[in-house]
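Researcher: I'd like a candidate sequence for this fold, 193 residues long. If you have to choose between options at a position, lean toward the conservative one.
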């Protein structure tokens, strides 16, 4: 079929149809990315509004949080997670006993343990010990798990791990390599009444 052999009206009709089809394709090519962009922006706005509502709720409770952080008696959870009221030496001894028990339960070899200076932490104090032990990776994992799940809450402020002298790193040895572990472990302690 020869396009130019058709009557003029039919040529104009075919040309108009092709032009309308080209416009529709061009419109879709522009409209689809614009629609995706609008949808993405609307989702970002919804997320932003949700974050704003969350932060407004937090800001509204600021007075309650300030009161709880300055008055340990007002914060039951803090009392449950901290050592009972005691002297710095008693608090450090409590931390030492807990860490010693955790290392023993994990099967690690405790080499030394010494109390660290107590520090102030708002209305609470921090009592801590420095521990040096020899442990396999499995024993270390068990100890860290016990520390993380302890009550009162214990936390590690500093840690240093290195391969213990005489421990083999090559694949020929069937024994797990032994690590020399140094941990500074702390707990919060309520002030002496």
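Model: Candidate sequence:
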């Amino acid at each position: 079929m020869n396009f130019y052999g058709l009557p003029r009206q039919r040529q104009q009709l075919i040309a108009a149809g092709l032009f309308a089809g080209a416009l529709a394709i061009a419109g879709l090519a522009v409209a689809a990315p614009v629609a995706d962009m609008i949808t993405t922006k609307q989702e970002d706005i919804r997320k932003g509004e949700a974050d704003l509502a969350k932060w407004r709720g937090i800001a509204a409770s600021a007075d309650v949080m300030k009161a709880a952080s300055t008055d340990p008696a007002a914060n039951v959870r803090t009392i449950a997670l901290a050592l009972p009221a005691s002297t710095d030496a008693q608090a450090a001894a409590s931390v030492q006993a807990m860490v010693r028990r955790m290392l023993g339960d994990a099967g690690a070899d405790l080499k030394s343990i010494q109390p660290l200076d107590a520090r102030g932490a708002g209305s609470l104090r921090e009592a801590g010990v420095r521990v040096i032990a020899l442990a396999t990776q499995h024993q270390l994992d068990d100890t860290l798990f016990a520390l993380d799940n302890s009550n009162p809450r214990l936390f590690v402020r500093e840690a240093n791990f290195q391969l213990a002298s005489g421990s083999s790193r090559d694949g020929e040895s069937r024994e797990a390599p032994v690590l020399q572990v140094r941990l500074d472990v702390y707990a919060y302690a309520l002030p002496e009444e």
